[in-house]
Model the fold of this input.
Amino acid sequence: MIELFYANTPNGRKISIMLEEINLPYKITQIDLSNSEQFNQKFRSISPFSKIPTITDHENNISIFESGAILIYLGEKSGKFYDKKNRILINQWLIAQVAYVGPLLGQHHQFHHYNPGTSKWGEERYFKIAKTIYKDLDERLEKSKFLAGNEYSIADIATFPWIARHPIHDIGLKKFKNLLRWYELISKREAVIKGYDCLKKGDTIPTP
Ligand SMILES: N[C@@H](CCC(=O)N[C@@H](CS)C(=O)NCC(=O)O)C(=O)O
Done:
């Protein structure tokens, strides 16, 4: 049994989607970020930076923090979506997501959506970067069915929930036809729909 320490954010959803995709039994322990539960000592003992997602695999009592590390662990454990022969490409696109796409879109969320009017410089800077991320992902997906080649992988699972925040990006997903094709294809997967709404609150994947 995998225990997922979760909040319904893009980083949390990467892991609930992966757990649904690989069909492993899991239970969710919610961490209420707005109530500062991430700073509880018990949680910090498995998540030293006080962040979700984190998992504990109760089969072997291993705990893992950082979404990329968790996806790699679950990919290796299940033998799914992390093809041994394609690891160089998968790792590249996965790490690009955790080190660049996520953090920079996250800054765009903060300046453009949650705190508009507080910094013109921040708003402009991260809006521009967010548009560049859309453009660059679109260019990649013009050449490749999925981010790391022909097969759906943990790199797509990591990136999808961030693009699913497109309504607050105000960039216009429909203008990027390859990114749109990829988004719509992944949106239809049963495991993605279930993982996106793993708290069963009726959260639906935003349509473009
Ligand atoms: N690099 C981390 C980022 C995780 C992260 O930023 N999680 C956010 C929610 S999406 C969080 O727990 N924030 C709580 C806080 O910063 O206090 C990962 O990919 O797992």
Notes: The first strand starts at residue 2 and ends at 6. The pocket of glutathione is lined by residues 9, 11, 33, 38, 50-53, 66-67, 98 (CB under 6 Å). The two ends are 35 Å apart (CA to CA). DSSP finds nine helices and four strands in the chain.
